[in-house]
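How it folds
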Amino acid sequence: MSGYPEMVASAASGANSTMKDGSVSSTVNDSMKGFHLNITVCDPVKQEQGAMSTYITYKVNTSTDRQDFHYRQFSVIRRYRDFLWLHNRLGEEFPGIINPPLPERRTGLISRFEPEFIERRRKDLERYLSRVASHEELSSSNYFMTFLQADDAALAEKKEEVKKLKAQLAKEGTPGANFVKWIDEAISVVKLRVGMEDEPRSEVDKQFEHMEQYVNELDIQIHQVAKHVSSLVKKQKILGNTMYDFGFAFTQLASSEREIDSLGEVLQHMGEKADSVSVACRAQALKEGEAFEVPIYDYVKIIAALKVAMTKRQEKKIKYVAAVHEVEVCTARRQNIEGIVGKEEKLRMVDNALHAAQATMEIAEGEFEQVTARILREFERFLAEKSYDLKKIMLDYVNIQIEYARKIEANWSELVAELEGVEPDIPIEEGHLPSE
């Protein structure tokens, strides 16, 4: 795997070259380069609308100098389901994109109204919007700009518009819908054909096979890291609790020894130092969780999003292969009846079907090429960001450990001189012990 990222980067740069029609496949909006788009999520508020409807709203603040926004600074109030709506729309609009992960909707054992959970979700939602904002394609989406700018009524109107459009497409279909219906019926057959070993594979197909292997291996490895990171954080919390009990035990011991000799005072200090270490251990567990555990598990989600993105190429390929097959079928039908007297009307119908099939094939081919190029760009971006992010995560972890070790060393060092200076108040003669 060591040399693979460079190979992918080369392929990805090639993916931004010209397509069959001479156009450039990259959809990056150059007009957005050089502009800033800063977003913060703050002020979580618990909203109660009757006994059965309680939720948290967040204030989303935006500051930008991009000309495609109406204002330079603006704020809106959003709840989690609004973020989820945006996330789903972006995934539909840009198949093959690495759709930034949202925080989980379910909370497990922690109530979603607990302050700790609300703050964690706030940070995760802010990270999500920041990732969308830093992505050229995603940040150009009309859905994204509507999410950031629209008031409640305008956002509800946009949601309803999308809902109606999807219902209409489901009912009437898109241009060439008669053929799309056939494609859906033929998908299972085409899947078998695409998956056959003797199916011709292009160099890009082989490239994607290597990419999938790389991602699957990385997924396994990052899950292992995440598992051990969680174990370390948990043990750090346990150590904090154990050190507290340890300190308390020494404090109790000091109470029984204080009346005998000066060792009792040192034992008391020992208990106090252990208590200080317990506080430092618990604080360290929180720091490790924030700076190490959370980012690692975030990468687990990013890799999952990458795997979803890569499946979109296979979906587009299946539809394209199905479309090619239908053109071949229509062409064969036309050849069979062309020139036969009395078949003019049937020939006209076959010609119409052939034209529709060819149009659908061109659309399917364009979508397949677009998604292929997008995934390669996304993969190159992922590799670059992964290198930077993992470096930062490791540096943060190491620096936290160094700081913690110095704090613990300083805490115990203060006790060394005191312990070395302890002299028994009662001389101990050989063979004798202090009496009670």
In short: The longest strand covers residues 37-48.
